[in-house]
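Please, structure for the following, as tokens.
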Amino acid sequence: MLVATGRTLLRVTTLTTRLAATVDAVGAALEAADDLVITGCASLGVLRVGVAEDEPRLLAEAIERLRAFVADGEGSVVVERGSSALRARVDPWGAVAPGPLDLMRALKQTFDPRGILNPGRFVAGI
């Protein structure tokens, strides 16, 4: 799955039963965007959203709205590609529950005790 257009690329995951509603939510959250392309895999509940809009404040607000929408079904919205200005306004990975985050940190510490492999490139700066 590849969205070839847009400066910003989002990966939105949701329950397959909420896929149509999620597509509607994406459209509503990004209604001001000039060029919006949505592709996906229905059987996995995964959407790729390409957006030409480059206004970081508007995109950050839309991402937070989408994250709130998909949170009910334990979904997520990840910024796969975006400007540094957008990444400064919104965490590209979104929130992670403390339990899984502790596990990820422990694994990183185990396999990269000196912290030299891609420092800060993963969830919560891991």
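The beta strands are 8-13, 36-41, 46-51, 76-81. The chain has four helices and four strands.
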